[in-house]
Amino acid sequence: MMYLIATLLCLSSFTAFALAKTPHYKAVFGTRPEHALSQRYLIAAWIMLLLTLVIDVSQAIGYGSLIFCGQMALSVLLLAILLSFRPSWMRSLFYLLPAATLLITVSHVA
Amino acid sequence: MPISSYFAYFTAYRLNVVARFATAIVGGYLLTALSISLMSLLLPVSKVDAVLFSVCLSVLIHCLIFIAVFAIKSLHLLCGGLLLLATLQWMLILILKG
Amino acid sequence: MKDSFFRSMTWLHTWVGLLFCWLLWLVFFAGTLSFFRQEITLWSKPELHSYSSEVQSSQQALLDYGFERLNTEAPDAARWWISLPSERNALLRVSHLPYPEPGEKASWINHNLAADSKVPVTPRESKGGSFFYRLHFDLHYMDRTTARWIVCLASLFMLVALISGIVIHKRIFKDMFQFRAGKGSRSWLDGHNLSSVLALPFHLMITYTGLITLIFTLFPYPAQTVYEGGVKEFRKEFYPERQRPELSHQPLTSPAFAQSIDHFFTNWPEQPISRIIIDHPRDAAAVMKIYGANRSEIKDEQAVWLYSGKTGELLNTAHLEDSAAAKLYGGMIAMHTGRLASPGLRWLYFLCGLAGCAMIASGCVMWAKRLRERQKPTQPVGFGLKLVESLNLAAIMGLPLATAAFFYANRLIPVTNSARADQEVLVFFLTWAATALFAAKWRNTQGWRTLALVNALAWLVLPLCNALTTQGSLISYVSNGQWALAMFDTMALLAAAVFFWQSKQLQSTQQPQRTRRERTA
């Protein structure tokens, strides 16, 4: 279950990485991002990525880091497919990812 | 550029490439074999552990040598360096094994 | 040489990658399939499909049954072997190896039994997933040692290509989400970058650890330097469980196997057993080896307890408490095989493996395209380029087709045929050879499209063929919760979809190319 949360977090992180890049941001929102905004995305992305690693490793050190590599691969693949074929769908990720993470966290705690 | 000198350059270039590949694969293999054998003698752990550690590092060493062979420009420096390293390590192994 | 380090690295990346790309494609493809070795084997033996892995009997009860059976059936065997059912294998296996006749080699006699009812199950003869597992480092029709050396060399080249690739393409991290479809060689470059970057840690890990699995073939020297007896003596110390005791030629009248098992269960109550092997069960020198099942530790070697058959006392243990070096070595091998993985991680492994296949395939194709672009339109096509293009087509499209053919052969060759396992393998290689012949003749876009369509069709019909020749189908698998089988069929359908999409893409890229050629003509 924790691994699932970590996967969603990893996906969010790479979404932020993608949006920090001007061409992708433009493809998704149609406007150019300000420099400060890109910076903020980048920082958020790194924080979330580190958090993912922490969650994975806290479950099991070796096994967790293997999972972490896999999660990164999965996230990049999904995002690359989305950005190449349906960039506008990226906008819905803004609501879907936090909602899903929240839902799973709540159901995990409950 | 006259066609003959172009041809000469091309042959020299090809020879150089073939030589480097041979050095990287065969030379790299021998040097790696020597360095990990030396390492397994020098490591201050039990015999089994020394062998395991050194074989685990072998691939890394071979890879580094492989890349170094292509990165170092002068062929003389390269061959000299490899030969010197190999001889040194070989002698050390002989001394250590008595 | 070249002017700069970066240029020499670019050069190295291209040539090192190319020399072995077709072999590496085979190794990666078969290796990726072998992450699901057990599941593929299960699929290829429909006789086992009806047994669920939820076993009611306790391990103790199963062992008792196994010993009883061996005692009556083969009291004078050289070795006994009892494999207990696990999550990925539902059957209890009771086997024995007779003493060989002089000048002959004895072979194991296996009995597969349903764990609860003890009804014997005889699955059809098939290599299943093990075929792909063996193929990815032993190749086939070839001496094992030679094959392993070749695979080692190819892996080393792969590692060099990966490292030099990282050095030259620092940009790849910059545009890592970019994939521009339908843009000719630009798309192939994007695909190459994407598939290498997205699983880069995996590619490095799997190549490095792959070499480590064969390392004693490659570098026996440290063991030879440290040990007088070389690798053999090293193995003796590192794997005490693999040694066979010498026969004492004194009969063992009352073996103490039961006491040993009791001792094991009282001292390690949490540890499940995966199998028990007994050497010389009727000799005073008998040794019983209890292999513990690994759980989520990153290690492949199972912990082993060695008990004396005569007195029942614990003689030795192996791989129970690993030293740092053993952990490093064992960890690397475990990371490579992925046997430790739970289904979730196994799928991630599979995904990364597919990314590796895509990386190699796109690299091959890109190279051929570059070669062709560099040629003047008036220049006749050289033999080298022809060869490269044919090999690309034969390898990249032929291997999945041959794999599909292997699965068809598994379902369609009569169960009663003798040596049918070898016939399946023969079908695999014949299909591949046929594709290669096809590729030698038609290696243009039309050829690619045709083979992509044939592949799509083959993979699409495979679940149908399965439904017609066995009791189950995708629907029944889902409703019965047989997920391994259901995923196999789903993957076949997915593969069909991907090949179909590819044939469409090829059709759309064909158009502009043709106009360009007309313009130059």
Automatic annotation (TrEMBL), chain A:
InterPro entries, alphabetized: DUF3325
Keyword flag Transmembrane helix: yes
Entry's transmembrane regions: 36-55, 62-83, 89-109
Pfam families noted in UniProt: DUF3325
Coiled coil region boundaries: none
Entry keyword set: Membrane, Signal, Transmembrane, Transmembrane helix
Name of protein: DUF3325 domain-containing protein
UniProtKB/TrEMBL annotation, chain C:
Keywords: Membrane, Transmembrane, Transmembrane helix
Superkingdom assignment: Bacteria
Coiled coil spans: none
Segments traversing the membrane: 12-36, 147-173, 194-219, 347-368, 389-409, 451-469, 481-501
Protein name according to UniProt: PepSY domain-containing protein
Species of provenance: Pseudoalteromonas rubra
